[in-house]
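## Example record

The block below lists the input lines for one assembly entry, exactly as stored, with component labels intact.
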Amino acid sequence: MNVRLILRLVARDWRAGELRLLLAALLVAVGTVSAITLFVDRLQQALLAEATSFLAADRVLSGSQPIPDSFRAAAISQGLAISDTLSFPSMVYAETSAGRNQLVSVKAVSETYPLRGTLRISDQPFTTDRPTESVPERGEVWLDSRLFPSLGVVLGDFVQVGYEKLKISRVLTSEPDRGGSLFDLGPRVLMRLADVPATRVIQPGSRIGYRLLLAGDDRALNEYRERFRDQFMASGNYRWQSIRESSPSIGSALDRAESFLLLGGLLAVILAGIAVALSANRYAKRHYDHVSVLKTLGATPNEIQWGYFGVLTVLGVGGVVLGLLLGTGIHLGIVQLLATYLPTNLPLPGARPLWLGAATGFICLIAFALPPLLALKNISPMRAVRRELNVTTTSGLITYGLGTCGALILLVWYSNSLWLTFWALAGGCLVCLVFGVIATLLLRGGRLAGMQAGSLWRLALAGLQRRRRENVAQIMIFGLAIMLLLILVLIRTSLIDEWRQQIPENAPNHFVMNVTSNEVGAMQSLLEEHTDYDGKLFPMMRGRIEAVNGVPVRDYQRRSRSADRGGPRLSSERNLTWTSELPPNNKMIAGSWWPSDTQESLVSIEQGYAFGWGLRVDDQLTFDLGGLKVVAKVANIRTVEWDSLRPNFFIIFSEAALADVPATFMTSFYLSPDRKRFLNDILSKYPTITVIEVDELINQVKQIVSRVTQAVELVLFLVLGAGALVLIASIQASRDQRMKEHALIRTLGGSRRLIAGSLASEFAILGLFAGVVAVVGAEITVYALESQVFDMPYQARPWFWLVGPLIGAFIVVTVGYLGTRSLISTPPATILRDL
Amino acid sequence: MATPILRANKLVKSVPTAEGLLTILDGVDVEINSGEAVAILGQSGSGKTTLLGLLAGLDLPTSGTVHLDGEEITAMSEEERAKVRARCVGFVFQTFQLIDSLTALENVMLPAELRRDPEPMQAASRYLERVGLAERTTHYPRQLSGGEQQRVAMARAFASRPRVLFADEPTGNLDLTTGARIVDLLFELNREEHTTLVLVTHDESLASRCDRRMTLAEGRTVP
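Predicted structure tokens for the full assembly:
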């Protein structure tokens, strides 16, 4: 057939309303996928941008040695933005009459700092702050609020850092990468890198953290990393950090959100695919007669095949273009809708979402719509004279094979995860098998019940029995759609609950450190009196492992499988503590906790640390605590909830091991924002202690979680739309047959009420059965997804078994009734004439 | 001597059923000359429609041969048979078989469009005018009466300028008066266009207007 004829066929079919459902399904497929991907793409970029502000950069190269200039030059030549920071502890002296001093953590920054996120400052301590684009001028410093009372200074005063006198010009309230190094001891003093040499504080042996901040596009960053990987590793002096490594709680929230959004998009693709398949099937069935007539008029099978292929191409191009416009529109609407919650400047989307949308449209058409349309070429021209002639369609193998291949390609491409695809497909296959069996059994049971039913229900059950094959298929499709929606709702609920639990309300948001042993009792009482504090102060000292079972640590770690890993070495200095009770949020996984009165020198090791370095229970570890040798036996290995924001330690000793070693004490507590002044009181009373505020960090994490939650809910809404379309398409598919039967019943005297009632009953039964089937499938899949993909514990949901079928019945009756309304109101004569 | 345009030899058509193989046609021979009008008569289930399908190349026999316009269509693929149909066969069906999404004019244009004629609309309009439906060109089948639909179907059949026209119970769905008018029109057009007519019917009076009749009973020709 020539192009003009094909275009005319499309125009005529369009005019007759034949293509509308297929186009609608295609629009939903392309529209949903492109809307989700456009939004997710931009949101992910924004979330990542927000998350990277915790690093103040996209990536950070950190180390205890100066960063070589060659690293810096290479980054610049690769088009990356760079900034240098340098942190070190130092005593600062107030140049006032009181002349107080304080141990602080100095951070010296270059002019470009920070590359991501913003510094916030205020003009008075403990007052409302504002963002700033600048860094301290040369010769000036910015001080943490809490340093003002403890040093007894005001803005304009001078402090002495090393040999240099610097003017206090601002109050520093927050810096983006403060959260990255929680135990970066002491309140912050921010100064210019260029002023550091004059202070002369950098001496051989000084504890200095060098950081090279890097920002730029992912490819350039990865290339840079690859280029220097060997040098980072070989020296062991540098560590490469991205947001996922440096802040695990945010990293895992992002990972799960990504998984969820992908899963949502993936379900939308499957649902849209089913909708396309159903409407293409209906379109093909309605064309059996047309094709047989065209064949009697001389159309060859090849012409029929290419003709319908042409129809599909025209439809595909039109559908994809309109779908992309629709998707863009929906995504803009969403952005508008969530404008108040979203970052003000969402980054522009890349081209990938649009490609993905377009490819989804064409793959959907080829995989789901092409098989029934290609089968049209096999329609016998004899059908024009013998309408009852059976239609030989394409073999099931080709139809389902193409469908499965298409679904596979889309799933893998879309999720970038074979694992997620495997589970989705395995779930799908299992569900089809289980659904088929259950649906058949339910329909058989329905027939027995129908014998005793009244005329309305009998008619409905007779309808179900007559089209048993179609109904089993329809229950499976309804069940699948409802199941996918249930899965999404369940996973969303679990995910959000899990996220919310991650940072519980009133989690500690302040750390107190450097408390001396004779201040412990007073500090404990002060905290208990002014806050809801119920913890204890932990002693803390620095020390390093010197030998493992007598093997010097450097030899030992060279042999370890973690030797070529980045990150801290086994020989690195660490914070150590001792306690007689297992701290809350710690769980033993090997060995046993020591009795509180033990006199043995024992040590407890954190799981990751122990496994990473191959440490086992009963190993003998030799420690060096500032020259003091301590030998301790590993008594147990435990897990630590690092996100709990309580004092957490990799290494804990028994009291007997370290009781005589001098230590300062630390703890964490919750302080509500309106009681911030309490910090001033503590610091005035105990000027030598250090308070670290992490409330800002917690708020930032909470904000990210809440935005991710909104995105998740939004995707759910879009997928619900796709699900509804599947239901409509499925009901439309059986509409012609229902129409004929009900017109006949009405000509035989059946009332409209009877028809409406029997239709509603039929849909209710279908929906109820589909609901049962969906609950079974959803439970199995959710269990698999929770345990394998999202890494969450399984939760039983008994209410679900009641609600599922009822929701199924409600949805199917509503959609079914809307889809077949015209069936009841059209006069039977019109229907019979049209058939 | 007239040349046969349609010749069938020992046509057998059997189909598998639940009860075993059912023979619908059992060794039927047919020979129809160019320009002839032949009626195939018989009771319901005698095999008339099956025979028509085989003669027109819509279906293939279990055994036997059919030659149409000098070519053995039973040895051809569906692709080749379709080309033969496009070139020299027209149909009029009992149920009209108009495409309901197309207007009357578009339905008549279809054969010419399939043949890729450069001006399909002109010929189509002429035939619609010839069957008296010049005013109904933009109407859809559902907007036309049964008689009008059959007239559109005839316009479509003749618009393909067939050498052989197959008509399957063309009046079966029409009342007597309308049926009679349709039959008149059919024979008029057949004469004008010098078409060979193969007419399947169980109506004796309709059969009597043909040059020759052939009766089928239980899948065989009855002398």
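Chain B has seven helices and ten strands. Residues 4-222 of chain B form a domain with the Rossmann fold fold (CATH 3.40.50.300).
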